Predict the structure.
Amino acid sequence: MPLVTTKEMFKKAYEGGYAIGAFNVNNMEIVQAITEAAELEKAPVILQVSAGARKYAKHVYLTKLVEAAIADTSIPIALHLDHGDSFEICKDCIDGGFTSVMIDASHYDFDKNIEITRKVVEYAHDHGVVVEAELGKLAGIEDAVNVSAEDAQFTNPAEVEEFVSRTGVDSLAIAIGTSHGAYKFRPGQKPQLRFDILDEVSRRLPGFPIVLHGASSVIAADVATVNQYGGQMPDAIGIPEEMLREAAKKAVCKINIDSDLRLAMTAAVRKHFVEHPDHFDPRQYLGDGRDHIRDLVRHKIVDVLGCNGKA
Ligand code: G3H
Ligand code: 13P
Ligand code: ZN
């Protein structure tokens, strides 16, 4: 099956009360782990590439790896640009074979966000590509975006209809309390999501697909493994999986997960080196990392997203 856009995936997910996993890819082992899990669970999947991933692995290597995954599996796969911060990077990815792009102009004011998003939508739609935009600001750190907790802003539901109708965007990322990275809540703080905002947004945009960024749960067992095998991660609190399951039953059709994959790879590799101090073949330790990510993604698909059997 060739690469698909997210249009059909989101329509079915909205109607079926589940979400599609959008997993960040940076190298071959990660692409293989995610797509093998999705194939085993018969789940549609979104592979997403950040600006940092393009810099690390190069655009052409990532698109060729995804092409290989397409040849090797029978599930619907969308290739998505994560957090595009300009028209130019979105255009590059549209021209370079992506089926979906995110334009993240959420750090600009409302009208400027609309202007940039509209420009990307026009170019993308002319080329059969779908667009995700963001309204509101998540806290957290990625390569390209660094928003402190004080600067984070929940999405204002009163703005969403105007934003969607003036931009023509296909899906909308909203800020309801998730954040990027492994440290989402301060120690002792109780994780909370603003489901009231999600409900009000979906009341104003019936049938419209909503996206949740910063949705890693920061699996405690992996943090423990990292620390048991020589790591020094402070206590980390992520988004409880039952909250994500709840969101997936509502209007949330795409759930972004990266930090959990990073943690799974690191836990498995650290464990491997301590248990096999004589090993030096990357296939051995990266193989363990790949297996562990595959198992994690299967768990997310079945127990969190609910998209197993929906391919
Ligand atoms: O939300 C962003 C993703 O986790 C990508 O992170 O920019 O470090 O590749 P990155
Ligand atoms: P996490 O850092 O919670 O995995 O979020 C990833 C993300 O939102 C990618 O866009
Ligand atoms: Zn994100």
In short: The radius of gyration is 18 Å. The CA atoms of residues 131 and 170 lie 5 Å apart. The pocket of zinc ion (ligand 3) is lined by residues 83, 180, 213-214, 256 (CB under 6 Å).
